[in-house]
Structures are given as C-alpha cells and as structure tokens.
Amino acid sequence: MTPKFKAQAGTFESSDIMVLIEPVAEGSGRQVDISSTVMLQFEEDLKTCINQVLDVMEIENVHLIAKDKGALTPTIKARVETAVKRSLGIQEGTL
Amino acid sequence: MKNALGVEIPEYIDGLGELQPYQGVWNSVLKGDVASQTVPTVLKAQKAHVSKMCDSLEDAIKKSQPFDGMTVSCHHHLRGGDGVLMQAIAILDKMGIKDITLASSSLTSAHDGLVPYVESGMITRIFSSGIRGRLGEIISMGKLKHPAVIHSHGGRVRDIMSGRIKPDLALLAASAADEEGNATGAHGPSAFGSMGYADIDARYAKTVVVVTDNLVEYPCVPPSVRQHFVDYVVTVDSIGDASKIASGTTRITSSPMDLRIARIAATVIEHSGLFKNGMSFQVGAGGASLAVAKFLREDMKRKSIQGSFMIGGVTSYGVDMLEEGLFKAIFDVQSFDAAVSTSVLNNPQHIEITCDQYANPNNCGAMTNKLDVVVLGALEVDVDFNVNVITGSSGEIRGASGGHSDTASGANLSVVVCPSFRGRLPIIMDRVHTVVTPGESVDVIVTERGVCVNPSKPNLAAALKKAGVNVVDIRDLKKEVDSMTGIPAEKKLGDKIVALVEYRDGTIIDVIKNVTNLE
Amino acid sequence: MAKKKRRSMLYIPGNNPAMIQQAGVYGCDAVLLDLEDAVALNQKDAARILVRSMLETVNFYDTEVCVRVNNLQTPFGLADLEEIVPMQPDNIRFPKTESVQDVKDFMKEVRRIEKEHGITDPKMTIHVMIETAKGVANVYEIAACEPRIDAITIGGQDLTADMGIVKTPDGAGIDYARKRIVMAGKANNLDVLDTVFADVNDDEGLKEETEYIKKLGFAGKALINPRQVDPVHEVFNPSENEIRKAYRVYSEFYKNTKAGIGVFAIDGKMIDAPVVQRAVTVLEYANIDIKDIEKSLD
Fold first, then answer.
1. EC number(s) for this protein (chain A) (predicted)?
2. What is the pTM of this model?
3. Residue B424: which of A42, A43, A44 has the nearest Cβ?
4. Of B301, B461, C3, C70, which has the maximum CB count within 10 A?
C-alpha cells in the first residue's frame, strides 16, 4: 500500500516519538530519517523497529521522519502504525 | 598493572607521575600508609599592621607572582553562579601565564568558559571532583594535555595534604570578608552558606587571596576562613550571579517516579535496623535522593524518632527537620539554598565544618565515618553494585564524584536511589562505564522496579523481605530492564586516557578513555 | 484465593507512553488505562493503538489492569473494543452505563470479538460505570444482569453534570447515588468503587473523603495522580490495633473450630460468623495469610 496523505502521530514528550509520513511517488522506495535523544545507543534498533512495522503493513513507498525522545519499542510500533493508518486514510487523526 | 576491580592502570602518566592501583575500600588505612606523604603548610611571616588590601583582582594575582606551571585552586561554593574563577583565568592568560594546573573543588556550568583555555593549552591539568557541560565533552575528546584527575571531596583534602595537589595561588571567593581576610559565606548579598571546601586551600596554598564583593568592617564574623592564612584581600564588583549561587528554598520533586523510588528507599531505611533514636543521616540535594528526606521526616514523626545529626550538602529541607527537632545538629560542609545561609549564621546547632572534618580519609574524625545512613544518586550501577556518577551514556564526562565514595564507605547503610532506566537508557549494567564508588561500599540499590541488596548483607535482605519490600536479584532486574529498553550500542572509545578517577585514598580506581563520536 | 484489593485505581491517560510504561510500579492496586475522557477527540485512534501495543509487552506486575473504552454511542466505542478485547486486560470499564440494554449491547460486541479471536474461556471482567441519573435509577437491574460484571463504579463529575448541579467538597449531590450504588453492588457481591478526588494537592481532603466512602462500603477509589495512592491506602489499611484484634479473633476461631466448638467468646463478647468474616477481611488488607496463622497453631 502507498500512503496518500501527509500524516503524523505521537508527541515530542519524553518517552514518546513523533512520526511524520510524507507520501512519495510509486516506486521511489522507503526513506526513513531518524533523530533521537538516544541516537548513539539505539539508532540501529530504531531503524529495525520502524522497518518491521512498515514491512507488516506492506508500505514500500514512503518518506518517514521520526523524532524520538527515548520511546520504548511498543510506543515506537504504535506511533508508526498510527501514522501509517492515518496516511492511508484508514483512520482520522491530526494532520 | 591491574587494580582490585581488574582495571588496567598505567604505572606512570606523563605530567602526573606514578600511579597506585586501587586495592579495596579500606586497604590503605589497614596498611597504615596514610600520613607518610603529608607536606608542611606554608610559613608566612609578616610585619605588624601591613595592609593586605589590593586594588584589583589583577593586582592581587600579580602580587602572588604567578609563573608558568603554577597551580591555581578555588572552591565551588558559588556553584553555577561563580564569577571569580573565569575572571582570574582571563587575567592570568593576559599576563601570558601558561601550563596551569587548575584545582577547583568542583567545576560547574559556570565554567564552560574554560574551554578555550584548555584548547589553547593554557590550562594543562585539572583536578576536580566534578566536570560538566562542554568542558567535560572536550576533555572526553582528549583536548586537555594531561588526563584530568577526578577526586572525591575527602580525597581532595588528602591530595592537598599529601602534596599531590600543591596550590600556588588560592582564590577564595567570599560573600563577606574583612581587611585581614576573615571571610564567610554566611551573609552578604551573595551569601552561599558554609565555606567548608575553602579551608584546605587556605591552609596549604602558597598565596591565599580572599575575593569578596562585600567588604565588612573588621572583624568579619563568623570567620570561616581565618586571617592568619590569608595573604591578600580584594574587592570586586561581583563574585557572581546571586540567583544562581543560592536561590530561595529547595523544593521536593513532583516527579511521581522519583517520589515512588524515594518512598521505597525510606521504607528500606525504616526496616534496616538503623531507624532509631540517635540515627545520623545524609541525603543528596535533588530528585529522588532529597525526596527520601520528605518520607523519612514523616516516618520519624509517626514513630517519634529523634535523630542525632545530619551532614552534607544541606538544603532548606534539612534545616526544617533540624528546626522541628527531628535531628539535634547539622554539620554543614556545603549549603544549597539561601535559607540555609541564614541557619548557618543564626542557629548554633547548625555547624559549619571543613571538608577535612567532613570526609578526609586520612584523619581520625571524619563525619562520614560516623554516619548511619546515606542516600545517594547514580548515573549507572552494575551487577557488582559499583556506581558511576561521572560519565554519561556516551562515555563522556558529565558529572561529579563529590562526596559519593566518601559517604558510601563511611555509612553503615549506603542506599543508592535511581530509576531502572532513563529515557530508554538502562541504568543497570554488567559493568558501569566508570567506577567512582566501588560496590564493596554500596549496600542497597533502590529502583522503582525492585530493591537490590548487596549479597554481602544477607541479613539486611532478609529483614527487608520480611517487611514486605520487593527485594530482587540485581541480575534478574537487569534482564528485565534490558528486555524493555533493548541493549544500547557499544560506546565509541579510543585508546587515550583522558581522565583518572582517584579513589578517596589516592589510588586509581578507574580510567576514562576518550570518546570518538563526540563533536 | 484472597479477593483482589481495589483500594486505589489510578487513571492513566491512554495516549501517554511515559505513564503507561510505568503503570505497574506506582504501587496502586489497579490502573485504569483511559481511552475516554483523558484522550483528545483527534487522538482516539493513537491512544487505542498505543494501549493495545503496551498491553502486548509491558509488565504490570500484580497491578490489576483495566481499560476504559468509549461508549458504544460514540464513533470510537466499537473500534476500542476491536482493539482491546483481544488483549484481554483484567477488566474493561464501560462508561455511562444507563440500562440493562446498554450492558447487553456492549457484551454482544465483547463476546463476538472474543469468539472471532478464539478466546473461549475469557477471564476479562466488566466494570460498569454509573454516571447519569438514569444509570443510578437502573443500577439494581444493571448490577444483576451480567455475571462477568465484578465491579460498579460511580463517575462523580459526569453525574453532577447530568444532574445539573455543582460537585461540592461535601459530595451532597451524589450522596444518594453513592449509597444506592453501594447497595446494588453489595446485593450482587460486586466491588463498588468511588469517583476521583480532583485536588491532587489536598491530601487531607482526599483522606477525609476516602474515610467517608470507606464507611459507606466502597472497596476503593479512583485516583488521578500517583501521589494520591499512599493517602488512600493509609485510610483503607487497618490500624495495628485492628490487626491485633483480627489476629486474635481468627486464632480463637481456628482453635475452637478444631475442637468442634461453634460459638465462643473473647473477653465476654460472643464471636459469631460475621465477626470472623470481618477479621478475615482485615487480615487480608494487612497482607497476613490466614494459612500462616493456622500453621502457627497446628
């Protein structure tokens, strides 16, 4: 599936992660940009976790920007899932 | 050579000389090698009625006859508001003095301005109990010529007495002083309370300069620093930012997690066997550590317990407990807020003490050795109960040893309070990045997810379990926390030693290597 | 097995990861992960997904976990159930329950979702929340209509709003509702749980209100800040004197029962079954296992 709308989920609070999704043209692939307060410790882990959710949701073409404030795995997964669902127009939410 | 914790310690470091490896908490004392290196204090004969007053700080510094390779010392009672040290370094730099050893009892956020002087090579050695901010980062990157030496508060006194640190010029800021150099922090517009760290500098420095923005009529009372040690007195417009030196009163945290940890810690103390009349107590000044005082205060009232004394780092919260009669006296080496200064000045049960009396491992009456309970913080702890309070999650220097290892070694019960993880960073490691306080002297680690008792104290563990405290094995807790946070990536470190961590007896307990991914 | 204590039930906003991941360590008996009033309308989807994700992995230790979903009349209620019911938290709290039909509609969806997910022996219980005048009027029927209900709770803020009155510190406006709901709960052997106390800085006021609702028969109270846990526990926990007395009553009861004596006296007062039952309850709140007492006497 390919995201249709700009969408975001999460907050800038501590232990949360803000995920922004920008639709891209079909066939342009995934671009995941991450910044984090624990970048030096968990960059790889963040990438893996975000990509896992995108894999499960079968999102191949997307630009995803994540600003992390030390979120734990279940939070990261939830925020990515929410942002993707919003960008697909499956769920209403903040834009 | 390896020390008792298995850390490889170089036998010799250029610019710092030979090193002794740490051998255990009480090894030096047991072996008796404590007093052999003590150096004499300086003799300073002077004719009668000679004025000590100088025209300016520059004038005072010139009179001390500064030279390349000198050691400049100062105290950190002005904390983040210090305006004296930076002025002095700028003057010395203007005079072209190089290769300076800086020996401050600690360095704070007020000292980021030292960075260019370290980078230019004007300052080449630093002795301090704490290094923070940008200064800590550039030292971690390897930009200080010789490794910084991190000592404890008590260790600094021993360092000066033993000649490890030989102050040539001591700049002692005071919120009130007279023309002879009697000086105090207990009153004046920039009052900061106890002046406990300055005493050792006054006694041992070749030239002692009292710096004040509040020259009072002779005599200045109370004379925390006394005139017979002081060479010069100088008035400046300001010794610093009063609002950052001491502000109002210290507030107890409102963080639910810190309060929860503190509540558990107070319960641990209550059931430790030490919670009884005559108990002595020390607590930190912030976060969960100070909050323990709140719960202990309630518990003491509920059970009608009267303690003996408090020491430390004193906050207005401690003063309140003194005034309520929960303790009979406070021994104050360092005061944290404005309300404390008033108490130091007016309450005879609030006694200003020197750092020598507070924590020097080589005297026969350190207060820390008479302590029942201390509550301490941690940046990291490990499964062997070692504590790191100096390096951060990237391995960078960003904290303070302070009195951590002094009080932990002396207290009958040393309690470390910390969350099990902070912003996704797990706090319990297999081995802390830097050992400041050895696990041998740490009895209990209190987290929100369980209380870990040092295996050397099985009776304590049994008593706490019986009281319903959630006692857990530290290795199990580590596993649980790791499963929540994930395992952080390895730190990016080089081979260069950028700092040495000195245990309170002067042996080297750990070394800090340079961090390669800092910018 | 001793009945679970529900002295304190802490509301945690469903869209707040920092608080949810720590929910098990605040020392309260239960947490209420809230998808309803504590979540902004445009974040309902995010909270629902977050709570589900947290339920999958977070260790809540022995803290009871309840999720408050939105009412089925809202656009969010059904989606909440679809997401949360498969996770089988300890209980689901159903807000603004007004009638037996409300419960039936709600349970129909719960059972359908459980069936779809192959949950054949669901342990999840239901908390109904009474927060309208109509709900108070129907509470006896509501309390009796569904065996999976194991607690009723009163929502003071919404109830006063529904009644068109102001909630006062003395609780005058909801006093009748409190008592009626307690009686409906007791008649059906359900825990009855009280509404929140809004001023987190007023420990004394909180304790006073808790003393009062304890006397009425409430099993516990909903909280909005972890700092309220200790004051509430203090009220519900028996005093040392009460514990001593209960210990003695139970010891005598056990000895006499073993000796085949039914009714006995302590200090000239007859000890009958209700007195023993009260002693057992006190010992439970004091974390004393009556089996340990029995062992010490054998």
1. 4.1.3.6
2. 0.93
3. A42
4. C70
